[in-house]
Amino acid sequence: MNPDAIRQSIHTALGKKPADLIITNGTLVNVFTAELLPGTDVAIKGNRFVAVGTIPSAARGNETRVIDADGAFLLPGFVETHTHIANVFRLHDFVRLVLPRGTTTVVTEVTELGNSLGLAGIQAFLAEARRQPMNIKVTAPCFSPPYPEMETVHPFSLADYETLFRDPDIVGVGEAYWPRIVNNPDQKTLELLSLAWQHHLPLQGHGAGARREKLNAFIAAGIASDHEPITAAEALERLRLGLFVMIREGSIRQDLEGVAAVKDMIRDFRRLSISTDGVTSSRLLNQGHLDVLGRKAVALGFDPVTTVQMLTLNAAAAFGFSDLGAIAPHFRADLQIVAHLEDFTPHTVIAGGRVAAERGKLTIAGEEYHYPLFACNSLNLDPLTAESFRYPANGSEVTVRAVRPDRQTMVTHEEIVTLPVENGNIRPVPEESILKYVVINRYGRQRLSRGFLAGTGIR
Amino acid sequence: MNPDAIRQSIHTALGKKPADLIITNGTLVNVFTAELLPGTDVAIKGNRFVAVGTIPSAARGNETRVIDADGAFLLPGFVETHTHIANVFRLHDFVRLVLPRGTTTVVTEVTELGNSLGLAGIQAFLAEARRQPMNIKVTAPCFSPPYPEMETVHPFSLADYETLFRDPDIVGVGEAYWPRIVNNPDQKTLELLSLAWQHHLPLQGHGAGARREKLNAFIAAGIASDHEPITAAEALERLRLGLFVMIREGSIRQDLEGVAAVKDMIRDFRRLSISTDGVTSSRLLNQGHLDVLGRKAVALGFDPVTTVQMLTLNAAAAFGFSDLGAIAPHFRADLQIVAHLEDFTPHTVIAGGRVAAERGKLTIAGEEYHYPLFACNSLNLDPLTAESFRYPANGSEVTVRAVRPDRQTMVTHEEIVTLPVENGNIRPVPEESILKYVVINRYGRQRLSRGFLAGTGIR
Q1: The pLDDT value given to residue A150
Q2: Which residues lie across from A173 on neighbouring strands?
């Protein structure tokens, strides 16, 4: 906040200046005290709340927009702590789908973007993010590339990280896979962790399956969060060790049900939140975003106010955001008006002080952003011909190894399949969902990599 | 943490390196989940915890010190969030009195030091603080001088503040008196608030008596905490608005009893802590430090584990400390071993990974620090003679105004007293506790200021 904005906030709270927006007669879900407070008024100036409870009548000016909440619940906007947007959506599409559902802040990974477009690509994404009508923050990729021995992409230098860490929209370091941290970490990784620590940026963890001494070691390295527990016992072990636990419930996995029993094991929920870890467009369209998670948590027996805390203040705390995730003076004016608390369906969403959505429809738009040319011409492919996709073999049939992914566990298995050879080339059997796959290096620096895929259901 | 320290932490947690210190068989007070966990082991490397719960046997090396807690409670070291040390104690004396009682982190105001010695004085204090065997952090004075229209001290410039804010041991801005923020704040104050905000440094508040729209305005300016509520209603109003409330219980006032009823009004205590706001040496010697506050809180009906949270994790959260106030990997290794939880009397205190006190006695010392000469020669007095202290008057007696301070409310009242005149000078009546006072300007730039004091009990 600049000095003038601070002065405006003070004067509006006192009624010496008109508020931009006043919401009257709401039932405040107070995430600090875990209370429901009927008859609460809220005043907004610029992009911040300036007064809650007592609004001087003089703050209601001629230009002040007034919304009567008519007793409905006032919830802070939801905060998504762990997701992957950049490889699935253009931001304006994402915003259109999530903001009307009450999500006003998103922290997203950009590892894939870093891999394909490098530092400049992430900076372009940040430029696009700043033009959106909601609060979009980014974690710097922890390992870029994730597997340097398998990839040819130009790695990020510490100087690149330093550049990112000075950007106010970089709010942490993205998920670190625990074996990379725990099993003989390389010097560059340690230097990155140290640099992030110096910048007070929290390190996000990917601790799938880590336990006992390995989990201790992972956390001792400075890892602050984990979105990977899939049982109540795993969540409990992590919470006890001080990790911010983000229960994952999205398109990749749905872990809320498996983890829910943790609610009866602890007496303090401050480090527990819920995140999607990424959603497909069909899930967003047909089900929803964090609103779905809220409904499911309540259905599983979480207290409704605790559920709001998990989706707001607790989520903000995982990144040390001191002015996000609550309806209070000085906090970013992100709010949703919800008729039935446990329904989590806002009829009005306010983001950064502006009415952003009404009855499920976006009412404001961001600025358009055009990616620079380098980002649009990033595929440097070797010439591809029909020959590129052939898999030559002799005889009339061959026995080959195929990859069978398990959608539930995300683990891939080996499957031995027998395939016909036609005209000197192996033929896949799409009728049985045995497919040929080809991995094409976008940098044009390596040969194609080919194989067979089984059991996906794709024909 | 530097890269090597991170590597050491990881390897010790895994048992590839020996720990420096292991505590076995404690009953962990887990401040994240609010659980008591018997049979917990804890390992320390350097100044940090590296493992809790599972300690590989290989981490117990020949040089590893092992302390058997024998079932006693393991509490995080206490965190003092608001106090004034510099004008009462030399730090080594303070440390000697508080560290054996379980206080391992102190955040102190240095307003008085800033007034008398300026920026260089605060920097000298920081140098002394860094040499102590406990964690001492400092808030930059918010108003220096507090009342520029009444004082001649050289004010801090924004550049001075910028210098302070870059010091890692400056963790916030000290208490801002609410009328100075709310009633037409001057441009320099607003610029200071803005600068602190840019540096992510929390602003401490002094909101005595502020309520409703004035409290909103105070918080809207970015104030993050208040240690001034004296009733449960005041504490509740502040908690609901998102302030970190530090219940004051020290030498100036004892507010725990007056505020305690707030515990039955809220369901979430995360923003509630307890602090002294300053203690005299006699209180420290005869009663104690934060240990007293813990005992009193429990006696007043606070849950013992909640009480530990208020004195540790909640206190750390008020400053956004992400690695303080809990016993968990990566956290600063500050711990106390307490035989009876509600007694809060540690028989062993570990600070920054070292055994710092046993059975009430300090077992380690800080480095000695000698203040630079300018700090020792800071009184620039005009020549003082007997004449300086005379209060001439005619006649045999006079009626004068005296200042009567109220120790309970800290408010001063006017009292009209009649005093004898002897040899042409007014004579105080110490038998009736009517005293003469003289204020001497330490900069030698103004005349003496004199008056009379009544009702202090001093003779």
Answers
A1: 63
A2: A140, A203
Distance, in Å, from the CA atom of A217 to the CA atom of A210, rounded to the nearest integer, reads: 10
Is 90 exceeded by the pLDDT of residue A168?
A: yes
Token digits for B336?
Answer: 């106390």
Whether residues A63 and A134 fall in one domain: no
Which pLDDT score is estimated for B150? 64
β-sheet with A103-109: strand ranges across? A78-84, A103-109, A135-140, A170-177, A203-206, A223-226, A244-248, A272-275
- Cα–Cα dist B314/B78, whole Å: 10
Residues A37, A134 within the same domain: no
Interface touch B266/A34, C-beta < 8 Å: yes
Mean pLDDT of the region A290-302: 98
Give alpha helix (H) positions in B357-426.
Answer: 373-376
The residues pairing with B247 across neighbouring beta strands, listed in sequence order, are: B274
Same domain flag for B31 and B170: no
Chain B, residues 176-195, CB within 8 A of chain A, namely 181-182, 185, 187, 190-191, 193-194
Does B9 touch chain A if contact means CB atoms closer than 8 Å? yes
| CA B196/CA B215 separation, integer angstroms | 20
Q: pLDDT value at position A184?
A: 84
Residue of B nearest to A6 (CA): B221
Nearest CA of chain B to the CA of A2: how many Å? Answer: 5
pLDDT value at residue B330: 98
Angle at B393 between CA B387 and CA B397, to 5 degrees: 130
Instruction: Note the pLDDT of residue A65.
Output: 98
Q: Which residue has the higher pLDDT, A238 or A90?
A: A238
Residue B253, min C-alpha distance to chain A (Å): 25
Structure tokens at A58: 């003089």
Q: Span A178-192, mean pLDDT? A: 93
Place of tokens 């004195």: B311
Q: Which residues pair with A24 in a beta bridge?
A: A68
- Whether B132 and B64 map to the same domain: the answer is no
Residue A331 confidence (pLDDT): 98
Alpha-carbon span B239 to B256, nearest angstrom? 15
Model confidence over A399-456: pLDDT tens digits? 999 999 987 777 899 999 999 999 999 999 999 999 999 888 777 766 778 899 998 8
CB-CB neighbors (< 8 A) of A52 in chain B: 216, 240-241
For chain B, residues with pLDDT lower than 70 are 145-153, 445-446
Mean pLDDT of chain A, nearest integer:
94
Of B302, B317, B332, the position where a domain reaches its end is B317
Question: How many Å apart are CA B256 and CA B227, to the nearest integer?
Answer: 11
Tell me the three state secondary structure of residue A217.
helix
Look up the domain containing B66 and give its range.
Answer: 3-71
Query: How distant is the Cα of B85 from the closest Cα of chain A, in angstroms?
Result: 27
Contacts of B202 in chain A (CB under 8 A): 322
User: What average pLDDT score do residues A35-47 get?
Assistant: 98
CB–CB of B35 and A309 under 8 A? no
| Per-residue exposure over A408-433, b if at least 16 CB sit within 10 Å of its own CB, e if not | eeeeeeeeebebebeeeebebbeeee
Helices (H) and strands (E) in chain B, counts: 14, 22
Q: Which of A320, A344, A370 is the last residue of a domain?
A: A320
Chain A nearest C-alpha distance from B152 (Å)? 26
- Return the residue in A219, A234, A267 with the most chain B beta carbons within 10 A, the one to mutate for interface testing: A219
What CATH number did the domain enclosing A174 receive?
A: 3.20.20.140
Residue A115's H or E segment, with its range, is helix A111-130
Query: What pLDDT was estimated at residue B152?
Result: 62
| Residue B429 structure tokens | 């009546």
Cα–Cα dist A444/A432, whole Å: 32
| C-alpha span between B402 and B419 (Å, rounded) | 11
The model's confidence at residue A106, banded by pLDDT at 50, 70 and 90, is: very high
β-pair partners for A172: A139
- A-B CB pairs within 8 A amount to 224
In this prediction, residue A382 carries a pLDDT of: 77
Number of domains in chain A: 3
